[in-house]
Design brief:
By secondary structure, the chain is an alpha+beta fold. It has helices at residues 21-51, 61-90, 101-118, 126-136, 139-160, 171-258, 262-287, 293-297, 300-317, 337-358, 402-411, 437-441, and strands at residues 323-329, 362-369, 373-380, 416-421, 427-434.
Length: 442
């Protein structure tokens, strides 16, 4: 059997709906032509047998009965193979006749040979059978099989012509079958080449569809991961810090109440309410994928200035003496939303670390516009730390992701984060972000 899958009617199994339209149409026409040709030639032979035309004398009743019986049996065998193949092609769970294709072809050829003994009119049924041999058998067996069938066909024509007036082997009896067999071989090879081309295109189309589906799935997963990381960064840099501030301020309020300082407690409750309102606005903003509410109300410079004032106020409300000031270097330029948001989140995260860990008395936020880049430096005179121990690795309680989140934000803008610190010597968080070409030119 050939390597490619073939059905019992000599047709390679393929799905026309998946093959290119033009090739599928040609293949379908060739298949239909093969079946129709077989049926027409068999019917013509039966009609001539019944009428006695072209035979050496009037056929006997036994010959007619044998011819009709064998023709009916041949039709049933041929039709059964075709129907079973079509059912399996439409539903692979049904019986697969492919392993029995050789036996089916042998039965068809045997019935044809018996019909050939009955009447020479069945000789022309050989031509569609040539196609079956060529497509069901390996080429090394198909070509000798076609040659043998041609020789039997020539012999049958000569055998049946002996009773005619001009009986004997004639040139036409040889040339007709030989040219017919040659035409069948050439056409069959062309059909096979056409099918292989259509099959290759179908395989390429399937690979392309599969690749596109995998690409779409990968892009979907990447989009989900990117959105998850975005939400994680936003939650850490806004909500988590806000909630942490609310918790600390709540404790401060509780202490003020215990100490009988009701006015102080009221002021600190106001800070809690403001922080909660800001957190709510931030949550709504990043869920919608919008810029920070602070940046919607004012520019980056004013927002950073207010952030320093807020940090100082909250520190004082918690009983911590922290002076936080903002400095501007250079002429501000309008930055894209992604740049402004990243710089604001960097300042928020850095100042949150200052009051949470540094035990500093002074913090300075410096925003610099240096032509081709914008920088943000956050300095504090706190206890400092060893930078090599601050790898930004998340801890089990959900903390410890600040530096990692900040680096991811900066990586999206080709920015850089440097940390300078040592125990007892304070800390400087230095951020460098190259400006877009048009902004740098401005």
């Amino acid at each position: 059997m050939q390597n490619e899958l073939r059905n019992v009617t000599g047709e390679p199994q393929e799905n026309p709906a998946e093959a290119p339209t033009g090739a599928a149409t040609i293949l379908r026409v060739l298949r239909v032509s093969l079946h129709v040709g077989f049926a027409v030639l068999l019917l013509v032979a039966v009609a001539r047998l019944l009428s006695g035309v072209g035979t050496a004398g009037t056929p006997t009743a036994v010959a007619v009965a044998a011819g009709l019986a064998l023709s009916a049996l041949l039709s049933l065998v041929y039709l059964a193979g075709t129907v079973m193949e079509k059912r399996h092609a439409s539903d692979p769970s049904r019986f697969n006749p492919t392993p029995y294709a050789g036996w089916w072809l042998g039965a068809v050829m045997l019935l044809w040979l018996l019909l050939l003994l009955v009447s020479s009119d069945f000789a022309w049924v050989a031509f569609p059978l040539f196609f079956l041999q060529l497509h069901l058998l390996p080429r090394r067996y198909a070509l000798p099989g076609i040659a043998a069938s041609t020789a039997l066909l020539v012999g049958a024509l000569w055998f049946h012509s002996r009773g005619l007036a001009d009986g004997g082997l004639q040139l036409a009896m040889v040339l007709g079958p030989v040219f017919g067999a040659a035409f069948a071989v050439v056409t069959g090879l062309a059909y096979r080449a056409l099918f292989l081309e259509a099959e290759n295109q179908r395989i390429v189309a399937e690979d392309l569809r599969r690749t596109r589906a995998e690409l779409a799935r990968t892009q979907h997963d990447a989009g989900m991961l990117a959105e998850r990381e975005r939400l994680a960064r936003e939650i850490h840099d806004t909500l988590a810090q806000g909630f942490s501030s609310i918790v600390l301020m709540g404790r401060s309020v509780e202490k003020a109440i215990d100490d009988g300082e009701l006015q102080t407690a009221k002021e600190r409750l106001g800070i809690v309410q403001d922080t909660a309102s800001a957190n709510l606005a931030e949550a709504r903003s990043f869920v919608r994928g919008l810029r920070s509410p602070d940046l919607m109300e004012s520019n980056l410079v004013d927002t950073l200035r207010r952030l320093c004032e807020k940090t100082e106020t909250e520190a004082a409300a918690r009983g911590t003496l922290l002076r936080c000031r903002f400095e501007l270097v250079g002429t501000p330029v309008e930055l894209p939303n992604a740049y402004q948001t990243t710089l604001l989140r960097a300042a928020q995260a850095s100042l949150a670390n200052v009051w949470a860990h540094a035990k500093a008395r002074t913090a300075v936020v410096t925003l610099s516009f240096l032509g081709s880049e914008v920088t943000l430096d956050v300095f504090d005179d706190g206890i400092g730390f060893e930078p090599s121990t601050a790898a930004g690795t998340a801890r089990g309680d959900g903390t410890g992701v600040g530096l990692k989140s900040l680096r991811e934000r900066l990586a999206a803008l080709d920015g850089r984060l440097d940390i300078e610190s040592a125990p007892g010597e304070g800390t400087v968080v230095a951020i460098r972000v190259p400006l877009p070409a048009e902004d740098g030119a401005a």
